[in-house]
Design goal:
This protein is an alpha/beta fold and 506 residues long. It has ten helices and 25 strands. The radius of gyration is 25 Å and the shape is globular.
């Protein structure tokens, strides 16, 4: 039956399905990591006027619809965000992949007389990778053996993979990228996320076919000048998260050469650090659908918004100031952003910046981090027709938040780090579709949010670092227990022996 399901797939989907078997058993695969790998491999057909990322997303939806892949998590719009393979499906895919010489999984013990498969996935490693006949035919190399050292991943090894199109080293603990990577002429996908690498070689500019570059959460703080030669680059991911999500500097951008704007195939740029004329030149990349800029200063206001108004297909915008005292240059008027779906502001906001929010009719996600507004911002966003996610961290300095009306499509609400907040109220019939509520670092809170009993679709309530009397009130037998007893999952996070732990109060 499983074989029939596989045989019934169109040829492109067969390749995409087999590709999933290269990931370890029960491995949760993120959508963008997978679909970008498919694109780099050439599995996604070209359709005139349609971005390959859109086609790849359709492939993923189809495989999930056919139950060939399992959806682990969806985003707020219902699109698969994380997926995995069922054990039986993976066994079928692995045997088929090996039989058809599509790909091979290596566990560190197999004796390899000859490498006849086109793709190699290394799950475990004992010592160095040995040289096998046929290694030069490999098109994709994925490494999940995170204990691989820089010594093992050497120039000599990389030189064997001359035809490589995809190289995925996510979370592998290497601290240097071999210079030989510059000779991988066919390389289209390079994932270095979570490695210990501190810099990219200048010679990376030779990778003229590179489309996807992920250096997220590495130690790389600046890009070499050669990056501006990568004329086919579509998605560089280059930001670093901090340890704490509630502090001001939750992430950092990466410095880039001033002529990066010449890369006219860029679809997204997350996140670039503002310096020199970078902001003024961003407007030349009118094809961008997503941009993140850090180190933004108030003096950048004119250049910033002159550039933003030229980004006519923009759907994601992230702006972060250089310090928590710097005012984000967002004023009362803003250029039309009809396609904007995700907006993130990190830094202080003037109250006059808020009124134009109501015009963002396509907005699905709003993140305000350390805005420290003195007046209530909720009346300006409550009527947004498509807002599904609202994240507010130290965004308001008042003592009360009252959701009086609207928020009709809101699914996820996160309220973090409100130093003065004493009361949260959710009126009846407001945010009727809310499924997830997270309240953290609100130590002045007197009670659980009022109105929880009206949220009939609420699936998860998470509370962290709130007064113990709030927690005690919702325990079984507590004063407010009746208000939360319909919620399937209630988690209380707290510190225990310097470790973050949680208890389930449902």
């Amino acid at each position: 039956m499983l074989l029939l399901s596989f045989n019934d797939l169109p040829s492109q989907l067969k390749h995409c399905f087999l590709c999933c078997s290269l990931f370890p058993e029960d491995f949760v695969i993120k959508r963008k990591r997978l679909t970008r790998l498919w694109i780099a491999e050439g599995f996604v057909e070209h359709v005139k006027g349609v971005m390959p990322e859109e086609i790849a997303d359709e492939y993923l939806m189809e495989l999930c619809f056919r139950s060939m892949l399992q959806v682990v998590a969806r985003n707020e719009t219902g699109r698969p965000k994380q997926i995995k393979m069922h054990d039986l499906m993976r066994e079928l895919a692995l045997s088929t992949a090996e039989k058809e010489k599509f790909g091979l999984v290596y566990h560190g013990k197999e004796v390899m007389e000859e490498m006849s498969s086109r793709r190699l996935s290394i799950h475990k490693l004992q010592g160095e990778i040995k040289s096998w006949p046929g290694m030069s035919n490999i098109r994709s190399l994925l490494v999940f053996a995170t204990n691989m050292s820089s010594l093992s991943f050497s120039n000599a090894l990389l030189c064997r993979f001359k035809l490589l199109r995809s190289l995925d080293l996510e979370d592998v603990q290497i601290d240097k990228l071999p210079d030989a990577v510059a000779y991988l002429f066919n390389l289209r996908y390079l994932n270095l996320k979570g490695t210990l690498i501190e810099q990219l070689p200048e010679s990376i500019g030779r990778l003229c076919n590179l489309q996807f570059l992920n250096i997220m959460d590495t130690k790389i703080e600046s890009l070499p000048k050669g990056i501006a030669k990568l004329l086919n680059l579509r998605h560089p991911i280059m930001y670093r998260y901090s340890v704490s999500h509630v502090c001001f500097k939750r992430s950092s951008g990466t410095r880039a050469p001033s002529d990066i704007w010449k890369l006219q195939k860029l679809q997204s740029l997350f996140c670039i650090e503002s310096e020199g004329d970078i902001i003024r030149h961003i407007g030349n990349m009118s094809q961008l659908t997503g941009i993140g800029i850090t180190n933004v200063k108030e003096v950048d206001e004119i250049d910033l918004w002159n550039s933003v108004k030229k980004l006519t297909v923009l759907h994601t915008l992230v702006l972060m100031t250089s310090s928590e005292e710097e005012i984000l240059p967002v004023k009362a008027e803003c250029p039309p952003l009809p396609h904007l779906r995700t907006l993130t502001f990190v830094g202080r906001l003037m109250q006059s910046a808020i009124p134009w929010f109501f015009s963002l009719h396509s907005l699905t996600s709003l993140f305000l981090h350390w805005s420290r507004l003195e007046d209530d911002l909720l009346p300006h966003i409550e009527a947004l027709p498509n807002l599904t996610t609202l994240y507010l961290c130290n965004a308001y300095v008042g003592e009360e938040l009252c959701f009086r009306r609207g928020f009709v499509k809101l699914v996820r609400l996160e309220l973090l780090n409100f130093a003065s907040l004493k009361k949260i109220t959710i009126e009846k019939e407001v945010m009727p579709n809310l499924q997830y509520l997270w309240v953290e670092c609100c130590m002045e809170l007197k009670t659980v949010p009022l109105g929880l009993e009206y949220l009939s679709y609420l699936q998860t309530l998470e509370l962290g670092f709130v007064p113990m009397e709030v927690i005690e009130s919702i325990r079984k037998g507590g004063l407010d227990r009746s208000k939360v007893q319909h919620i399937p999952e209630i988690r209380h996070y707290f510190q225990l022996s310097s470790k973050l732990v949680f208890e389930n109060l449902a």
